Amino acid sequence: MAEADYLTLSAAEAAFLKAAADTIIPADALSPSASECGVIDFIDCELAGPYGEGARLYRDGPIMKGKPEHGYQLGLTPREFFRQGIAAADAWTEARFGKSFAALSEAERQNAFIEIESGKAAFDDFEAREFFDALLQIVMEGFFADPYYGGNRDMAGWKMIGYPGLPADYQHAMEHHRGKRITLKPRSIGDYA
Amino acid sequence: MTKRLKRADAVIIGIGWSGSILARELTKAGLKVVGLERGKFRTPEADFALPHIRDELKYAVRQELILDPSLETLTLRHAPHETALPLRRFGAFMPGMGLGGAGTIWNGMTWRFTPWEHQLRSRITERYGKGALAAELTISDWAMSYDELEPYYDRFEKLCGTSGKAGNLQGRLIEGGNIFEGPRQSDYPNPPLPRSHGGALFEAAAKSLGYHPYPTPSANLSREYRNPEGAVLNPTIFCGHCDRFGCATNSKASPHSTILPSLLLEPLFELRTDAWATEIVYDKAARKATAVRYVDMVSGDEVEQPADLVLLCAYPFSNTKLLLLSGIGTPYDPATGQGTVGKNYCYQVTGNVPVFFEHEEINPFMATGANAMNIDDFNGDNFDHEGLGFFGGALIFASPVHGRPIMGRLTPPGTPRWGRAWKEATAKWYSHGFTIHASGANFAHRENYLDLDPTYRDKLGRPLLRMTYNFHDNDVKLSAYTTGKAAEIAKAMQPTVMGTPQPRRGNFNVVPYQSTHNTGGTIMGADPKSSVVNRYLQHWDADNLFVVGASNFPQNPGHPPTGAVGALAYWAADAIATQYLKSPGPLVHT
Q1: Model confidence over A78-90: pLDDT tens digits?
Q2: Active site includes B517?
Q3: Mean pLDDT over residues A31-54, rounded?
Q4: How many domains does one find in chain B?
Q5: Å between B470 CA and nearest CA of chain A
Q6: Which member of A77, B368, B432, B589 has the greatest number of CB atoms within 10 A?
Q7: Within 13 Å, how many C-alpha atoms sit on residue B99's CB side?
Q8: Residue B35 belongs to what H/E stretch?
Q9: Are B239 and A179 a contacting pair at CB < 8 A?
Q10: Does B51 fall in a domain?
Q11: Cβ of A167 and B51 within 8 Å?
């Protein structure tokens, strides 16, 4: 997709997210890759919308560093958080591997993630672990949320685990299928709209 | 300028479970009642309908029906010497927002507390001696006994159409029900739900160990039911969308499905939504509440609603905050133990053990919020605490509550969080695991309390409520013991893989979801020096002000709170209708 096609992501951000999301959810026999399932479009829409702008987030100051048990304590909106986090991650891979994250080989990306996740990597001015957790969360949202939001294309995420989606009426199945596999063709909100 | 309205007989703050029950009962007594609800007007037809209600991202992850932290949140510190920081997002608990309150978005577990829990301090002292309880545990007896509250528990169960199996019917113990419950005068109005597969596996293992499993008393209904208000509820369809969602099929008891239909047609009741109460106007000399001030969130106008009777029926945080902001009563001071408002804030001490069965189809998506199998063998004082170093216990239960794919994917220990190995494990185990939970009691502690934050403000510019809270010795030992018992049951189930038992330890963490069972802050008691309200939930310092809800609990038992919240609302309504209105004044004299 050309840069102009995204609502808020820059070309470099989209390239980072595609490489990162496809490292988190690579293509294999179980499903297409995250980006093939629309996860980058999902992230773009989310970060361009109310969530990305900080809806339902208490942002008043003073902004102070807390304990991990205080949860998120940055003054950044999710849009700003991902902008700064992606820049910090790319700066770190440039220093560590001499390339942007998107330019790394698959094995190098996996190694980079292992270093970030284990706390070995330290970004300049940004919590690497906090960024990685948020990245993991939004990729999973894109892969498993209703296709209504642009990700989980063809319900690939739901098919991978056997989640039947809508309408979720198990009034009779509760007794008739107790302990037995249910094979239902999954349906989404769009199938009813 | 504040707009002053015509006097009402009664004004109610918060139209959730407590507020809607009190509104209904007081209009039956002939009062003109105004209900103030700060959230939006909502109807199941417009707001909880298929297909859009089945949107996990919107409702469960982005928390559409939960209090918006940018409007109001809390701050947290773990001890009185620390600086509190705001909860910028809700994680550990999910306060409700909008008509119906938390009653819209709950799971539907509808327990009664036991006779022992109603007399907690006395009974522990009786059995284990005067010096048995650590001095920092500020627990106290309820202000009414189980027997006194029993008819009101019963009324709430009949309002909800609670589906369950009695374990103690008028003193006769019944196998298959909860034999540890207090004697009930009548059975549940509806039979229990059919077992889930996970629940059945837990039941068999618990029985093999000699325990006494029984089905959750559930406000997800087992059959069609017409309640005493004339509302008709449907049997549950096990859709797996209870907590954080409104019910699309009218089969989860909530204010919307049980009481609002008749209340909203009642000519004596006027509902005002988008009405955020900011102050109870208090005449200190006369010891009366005279009015409630609120902000109309649509127009921005400040409005004053005078009333003869003020009923504060919001969530525990808002009940406590409004009393503090209105200068009614004395704020609690942990250094001296003096003062009462904000005292004995309690939470739930939760632990869990995941289990995985390669050859069992769990179908986690086929679930309701309240359809587990449970044991009380390690709850309350149903086991000997001599030498254990803690008091209280936990409800231990198991069943999937939902299998929603963003938030409900269990994998065995050691599974990576991403990449091919994560995919393989997620695909393999999604339908083959569930969690055994231990919902532990939280005993009140001298240093766990609520007051006003000196720094952070809400959308209206008022201080945020500050929570000083952590898990203490009793909690950590209780959680280790009861989670250990859950792990023994897990082992007896002979799972293919057993997850790592996770008792509660370390600091209270606001990030992972634990429970929305927040209690205390305006506790009931027999003495104005140590409680905010008397046994009728009437404020000690203003006889025409009643404060009602889980904020009245002196401490939090292992069982979920909503059954008792409903019972207390009926209890207070009855005291107002039969005693207070005949002779307005203090109902308890000290």
Answers
A1: 999 999 999 999 9
A2: yes
A3: 98
A4: 1
A5: 11
A6: B368
A7: 21
A8: strand B33-36
A9: no
A10: no
A11: yes
Q: What's the CA gap between B134 and B131, in Å, rounded?
A: 7
Of B153, B84, B91, B83, the C-alpha closest to B118 is B153
Quote the domain boundaries for residue B410.
Answer: 150-251+350-441+471-506
Q: What is the DSSP string of B182-251?
A: PPBSS--SBPPPPPPHHHHHHHHHHHHTT---EE--BSB-SS-EE-TTS-EEPPP--BS--TTS--SSS-
pLDDT tens-digit profile of B354-400?
A: 999 999 999 999 999 999 999 999 999 999 999 999 999 999 999 99
The answer to whether the beta carbons of residues B345 and B582 sit under 8 Å apart is no
- Cα(A97)–Cα(A90) distance, rounded to whole angstroms? 10
With bands split at pLDDT 50, 70 and 90, how would you rate the model's confidence at A127?
very high
| B265, part of any domain | no
Rounded to 5 degrees, φ, ψ at A117 are -65, -35
Residue A4 has pLDDT above 70, yes or no: no
| B55 within some domain | no
Chain A CB contacts of B453 under 8 Å are none
- In tens, the pLDDT along A147-163 reads 999 999 999 999 999 99
Q: Which residue of the set B256, B437, B472, B517 is catalytic?
A: B517
Nearest to A14 by CA among A105, A109, A98, A83: A83
Q: How far is A14 from chain B (nearest CA, A)?
A: 19
- Is B464 inside a domain boundary? no
Whether the CB of B56 is below 8 Å from some CB of chain A: the reply is yes
Q: A32 and A9 in contact (C-beta within 8 Å)?
A: no
B89 touches chain A (CB under 8 A): yes
With beta carbons under 8 A apart, name residues in chain B contacting A69: 78, 506-511
Q: Is the pLDDT of residue A2 over 60?
A: no
Q: How far apart are CA B401 and CA B418, in angstroms?
A: 24
- Residue B559: is its pLDDT beyond 90? yes
Query: Which candidate from A55, A67, A168 shows the least CB-CB separation from B507?
Result: A67
